Amino acid sequence: MRDVCVIGLGLIGGSVLRAAATAGRRVWGATDSAEDAEAARADGCDAGTDVAAALRRAAERDALVVLAVPLTAVDGVLGAVARHAPEVLLTDVTGVKGPVLDAVRRIAPAARYVGGHPMAGTAKSGWTAGSPTLFAGAAWVVGVERDTDLAVWREVAALALDVGAHVIPLGAAAHDETVARVSHLPHLLAAVLAAVGAYGGPLAAALAAGSFRDGTRVAGTRPDLVRAMTEGNREALLPVLDEALGKLGAARGSLASTGGLAATIQAGYDGSHAVDRHRSAARAGVRVDLTAPEARDGLLALGERGGRITALEGGVAIGEVA
Amino acid sequence: MRDVCVIGLGLIGGSVLRAAATAGRRVWGATDSAEDAEAARADGCDAGTDVAAALRRAAERDALVVLAVPLTAVDGVLGAVARHAPEVLLTDVTGVKGPVLDAVRRIAPAARYVGGHPMAGTAKSGWTAGSPTLFAGAAWVVGVERDTDLAVWREVAALALDVGAHVIPLGAAAHDETVARVSHLPHLLAAVLAAVGAYGGPLAAALAAGSFRDGTRVAGTRPDLVRAMTEGNREALLPVLDEALGKLGAARGSLASTGGLAATIQAGYDGSHAVDRHRSAARAGVRVDLTAPEARDGLLALGERGGRITALEGGVAIGEVA
Known about the structure:
The first copy, chain A, contains 13 helices and twelve strands. By secondary structure, chain A is α/β, with parallel strands linked by helices. Chain A folds into two domains: 4-170 and 286-321, NAD(P)-binding Rossmann-like Domain (Rossmann fold, 3-Layer(aba) Sandwich); 175-280, 6-phosphogluconate dehydrogenase C-terminal fold, CATH 1.10.3660.10. In chain A, the strands form three sheets. In chain A, strands 3-2-1-4-5-6 form a six-stranded parallel β-sheet, with helices on both faces. Chain A has a three-stranded mixed β-sheet with strand order 7-8-9. In chain A, strand 8 (139-143), helix 6 and strand 9 (166-170) form a beta-alpha-beta unit. In chain A, helix 4 (71-84) packs parallel to helix 5 and helix 7 crosses helix 11. Chains A, B: Residues 2-286 form the Prephenate/arogenate dehydrogenase domain. Chains A, B: It comes from Prauserella shujinwangii. Chains A, B: Belongs to the prephenate/arogenate dehydrogenase family. Chains A, B: GO terms for molecular function: NAD+ binding; prephenate dehydrogenase (NAD+) activity; prephenate dehydrogenase (NADP+) activity.
């Protein structure tokens, strides 16, 4: 199995390091955070603060490098990759894919890069919050672009599968638009609802019940984490935010003019049931030969229909789709 | 203890009938729904479909009449009250208070009316969905206006306390604005989010995680129930909807211009924690003498600060407030 070098040992990077080690891989990590490095060493892991040395070792051993730093730190680490391991196998775990893909093309263009995004996390952060089982049962998006080298794609997908996730093959643009829709917009609506509710003071708190609690739950997430993911996905988030504003404005207009909210409420009811139906739809087995010329199209067709890869058998990806 | 006559034997009315009987009161009910009446009789309750007879009996026995019909049916039942029990003790359990208060003043002005709203419910409806413990631990708003007769208020509060709820004394306008904020707006935001998410198809369903599930949970509520409460509270809901639109529009503008969402996200985080703080604040005991001239102000000051009445001792209401 391919060696793994993780740069950044917070919640996600620290969990990748532990999960890959548990899967039987040789792993090492480095981080700018002396605190995370020390905590990792205290847990018996091969970890330090010398990012350059870790990358040089990755180049020597042809390891897979996992960038697990916040989006704002990606450019800096890519500079180190370009200097110390310019042609290395490279992936990342950042929550937006378009901006990272652009940065790799700009800063470390020779790296054999395929992006990734494990859809797992907790409200906590840092090495101590991580766990080798964080990715068990989670979706892990692995990027497919027109120019993706599927041998590299296979390396990244294999790591995701090794740590217990299933793989969703997806282009950066489709990923970023979809997370704007189902993750970033929910965080912004929760923030707006919490602010409107809080304006009602202690009386609002006394009358708030299930609908308010559910609708504001993620508003308690650390603001810097929410800012990083939403602001980092600005380009894809703006049109989704406009969709939501349009629908809420239409509800306002209809309530003010005719007094009716039927269209808004019915669309929400239908939408909620449609999402549930997609989730519970019967799925059929699919095989994608990664060496075939149409393999990229096969992977994208699978991912864009909500399908997933669950195993690799040599050069064949085994999956399921509704 | 005062006899109780419940008109409407769905989820809430049926639960009031059962809970009041369990508390040891003599109870009877009537409903337009032959199905609910039959189900109530099958459970051994004194129930039928002759609303006029039930109201005449209430007038004879000076019972407390509880209107437990949807807002759209309130005017019709108030007409029957005006004909058959014009001066009866009267309350209701409708989710909006201003429109019902107006209707009582217009249609049954001689009724000794104080409005109510038990903050309890389930996604189900009808007699069979009800339970004698539905109100255990719930908040029950009991209306206080400038002209409220506190002897009537005491009768309504006593029923709420008897069935296990605590009482929040509140004017109709404050009630309607606050439920718009913490209940009706959450339903509309959940509907918008579910519609935007569903537009992303099976891929969105595959990537949707906790934030989307929490944010859309109430979008699965029966559309006619959500319409009834939101459309019925139009006047109070419009300005709250404008607040939400203003905040979401400000987020959109900031993201488009500077790329920053700090203000939106921090306000949501602070709001969410402020609501939690109000909920867990230490509370001191309060006594309001219902026979004192300033009793109405005392009750309103308590309710508007998120306080509650937990018992009645003769003419004194015992409560707590932060």
